[in-house]
């Protein structure tokens, strides 16, 4: 066979690089018949089916129909033509689909012919019968899994407000991604399974619901919902699916991290013993937060819950500065001060509020180590439901690399609302406050993923600050009590304190850290030891003193000191302090050095004292920053510094 004759045969079999079904009618029919017999083992999957639909590319011969009838005895067999199929066939039974795609094998044969391997003597023409014979010989040993596809599919029964009820998909798993085949082929709509019942599957859409209609085919992807994560996310604002929404360039695909994941076991964990410094005096002294802890921030609307979380993020700038070469002793001192990646998850907030928060982070250069996951109130309930899990998946990526991560969920009340909305549409039974029965599990499986890993597993950690909004200071409501029981303590903000000018309006009596002093350095522990007690005594005495009874001198002195302690714990928004400056302020208040300063001037005194120490007492501040217990020399230096400053203190 001459080279030109071979090329002519290929041209007759292929048009524009695709198999021309008109030229290969005979080949296709014979190939389909042969493939049916070749895949008898696979076709046994349909043994229990009562009805089988066979779709073929071309009108079949009587023998082909006979072959199908032999393979599917005692079954209703429906044969249809599908012009989209070029070679092979598609068999459907209930929700199982088997597609035999023989185009790949035919193209290999054409290549075989073009290399003159079918007719090595190059004599005569190669007929269609020869091609078929050669195909049959090759098919006898042909079992490439790449050329057949067994799928478990479904059909859309109902589209209800972005929740799809589908039949079929009998083998789909909870949380699995599925894709919808719609009329608009260019854009594929995705969803994930959130409900499994005996006859139907409920799917939450991750895109527009307008293109989905009844009867559309649904395909499994065999993958759980995940988000691509890499270092490129740092400094970016993304939605819960990892898509950038800050107008910057697209983020390159990173490691796929599953949104839902079982929390790390006890064996891989270690106790929380490393402080995460918030820069807020009241918290670092009385309600300390450790790396790997879950500390709830709870209170009514507008009391500064988000401000505390943002202050904590801003304070991590100190630990994210590039460090120069350090001596061994300096490295030991800074062991508990390594950098922290911060993740801020905004759930159900106004877009303007999220934009303001991002601007604050950007102005303070905090976006250099922060990732924002935003699901504003305008986004679908499905995305608001997924947002905290997306943030946690990102956090786990960095934790597994041995890094410490701080994640803020702002807020989980709106997260619960979004899940309630989805559950009601899914027609799940409503319980207390119309929440579904698994509302506790919604937050427990999320917050259990906050952990401090032991050194054997990398030593990374995830610290979470969930935020809960109460109504009329009711901590006994359903969602607040749920999250309080899950977390390792709470920071409670009180309306009455806020109204009298105490900012942050933290109530030390209702606030607690179940990690306690383990999450404090020895330095601040030695200073703050009697702070909570003195504050509690002041509050009880102040309640007693309002009746106007005559008080002795000691009681009056205690009241006056208590007023100054309350005043020193006040702190401006977005101005976190270093631990050294916190110790300087708290030590001065608890040791009576502010007793002769008028209450209304305490705040100004503190500000000027900090400026004075930064300018003239750098060595003292370095000693306080080491975290070691205050020595007698350090205490003497503290007293000397404060007294020296008081001599020149002037009210401006």
The largest β sheet comes out as: 8 strands, mixed
Mean pLDDT over the residues: 84
Termini distance? 105 Å
Total count of strands: 22
Give the CATH topology of the largest domain: Rossmann fold
Can you give the helix content as a percent range?
25-40%
Alpha-carbon Rg, integer: 35 Å
Identify the CATH architecture of the largest domain: 3-Layer(aba) Sandwich
Neighbour order of strands in the largest sheet: 14-18-17-19-20-16-21-22
Q: Which band does the percent of strand residues land in?
A: 15-25%
Helix count, DSSP H or I runs of 4 or more residues? 22
Task: Report what the structure shows.
By secondary structure, this protein is an alpha/beta fold. The protein folds into four domains: 3-143, no CATH class; 151-225, Elongation Factor Tu (Ef-tu), domain 3 (Beta Barrel); 272-319 and 336-520, P-loop containing nucleotide triphosphate hydrolases (Rossmann fold); 531-648, ATP synthase alpha/beta chain, C-terminal domain (Lysin, Up-down Bundle). It is 38% helix and 19% strand. It is built from 22 helices and 22 strands. It has an eight-stranded mixed sheet, sandwiched between helices. It has a six-stranded antiparallel beta barrel with strand order 7-8-11-10-9-12. A two-stranded antiparallel sheet has the order 1-2. Helix 10 (351-363) links the parallel strand 17 and strand 18. The longest helix is centred in the middle third of the chain and has 19 residues, at 381-399. The protein is elongated. The protein starts with a helix and ends with a helix.
């Amino acid at each position: 066979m001459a080279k030109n004759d071979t090329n002519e045969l290929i041209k007759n079999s292929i048009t524009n690089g695709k198999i021309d079904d008109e030229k290969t009618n005979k080949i296709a029919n014979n190939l389909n018949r042969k493939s049916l017999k070749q895949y008898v083992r696979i076709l046994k999957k349909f043994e229990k089916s009562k009805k089988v639909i066979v779709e073929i590319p071309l009108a079949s011969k009587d023998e082909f129909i006979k072959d199908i009838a032999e393979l599917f005895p005692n079954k209703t067999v429906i044969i249809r033509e599908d012009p989209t199929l070029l070679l092979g066939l598609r068999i459907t039974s209930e929700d199982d689909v088997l597609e035999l795609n023989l185009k790949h094998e035919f193209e290999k044969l054409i290549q075989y012919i073009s290399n003159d391997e079918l007719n090595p003597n190059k004599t005569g023409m190669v007929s269609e019968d020869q091609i078929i014979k050669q195909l049959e010989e090759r098919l006898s040993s042909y079992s490439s899994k790449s050329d057949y596809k067994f799928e478990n599919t479904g059909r859309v029964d109902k589209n209800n407000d972005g929740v799809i009820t589908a039949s079929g998909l009998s083998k789909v798993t909870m949380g699995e991604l599925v894709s919808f085949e719609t009329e608009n082929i260019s854009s594929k709509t995705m969803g994930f399974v959130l409900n499994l019942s005996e006859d139907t599957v409920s799917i939450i859409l991750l895109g527009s619901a307008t293109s989905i209609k009844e009867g559309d085919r649904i395909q499994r992807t065999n993958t759980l919902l995940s988000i691509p994560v890499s270092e490129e996310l740092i400094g970016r604002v993304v939605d819960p699916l990892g898509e950038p929404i800050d107008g910057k360039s697209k983020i390159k695909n990173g490691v796929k991290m599953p949104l839902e994941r079982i929390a790390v076991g006890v064996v891989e964990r270690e106790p929380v013993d490393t402080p995460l410094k918030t820069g807020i005096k009241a918290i670092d002294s009385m309600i300390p937060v450790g790396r790997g802890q879950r500390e709830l921030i709870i209170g009514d609307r507008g009391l500064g819950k988000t401000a505390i979380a943002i202050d904590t993020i801003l304070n991590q700038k100190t630990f994210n500065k590039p460090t120069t070469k350090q001596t061994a002793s300096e490295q030991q001192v800074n062991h508990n001060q390594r950098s922290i990646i911060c993740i801020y998850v905004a759930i159900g907030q106004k877009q303007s509020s999220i934009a303001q928060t991002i601007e604050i982070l950007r102005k303070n250069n905090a976006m250099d180590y922060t990732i924002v996951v935003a699901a504003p109130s305008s986004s679908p309930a499905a995305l608001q439901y997924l947002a905290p899990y997306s943030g946690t998946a990102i956090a786990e990526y960095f934790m597994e690399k041995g890094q410490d991560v701080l994640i803020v969920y702002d807020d989980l009340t709106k997260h619960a609302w979004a899940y309630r909305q989805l559950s009601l549409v899914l027609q799940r039974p409503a319980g207390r406050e119309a929440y579904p029965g698994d509302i506790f599990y919604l937050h427990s499986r999320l917050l259990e993923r906050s952990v401090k890993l032991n050194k054997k597993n990398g030593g990374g950690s995830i610290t979470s600050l969930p935020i809960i909004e109460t109504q009329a200071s009711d901590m006994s409501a359903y969602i607040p009590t749920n999250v309080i029981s899950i977390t390792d303590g709470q920071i409670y903000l009180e309306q009455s304190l806020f109204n009298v000018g105490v900012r942050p309006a933290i109530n030390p009596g209702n606030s607690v850290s179940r990690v306690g002093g383990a999450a404090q350095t020895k330095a601040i522990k030695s200073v703050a030891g009697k702070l909570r007690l003195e504050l509690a005594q002041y509050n009880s005495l102040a309640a007693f003193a309002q009746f106007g009874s005559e008080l002795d001198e000691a009681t009056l002195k205690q009241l006056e000191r208590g007023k100054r302690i309350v005043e020193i714990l006040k702190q401006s928004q977005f101005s976190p302090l270093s631990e050294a400056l916190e110790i300087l302020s708290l030590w001065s208040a608890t040791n009576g050095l502010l007793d002769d300063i008028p209450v209304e001037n305490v705040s100004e005194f503190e500000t000027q004292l900090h400026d004075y120490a930064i300018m003239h007492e750098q060595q003292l501040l370095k000693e306080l920053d080491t975290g070691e217990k205050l020595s007698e020399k350090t205490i003497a230096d503290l007293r000397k510094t404060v007294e020296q400053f008081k001599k020149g203190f002037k009210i401006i």
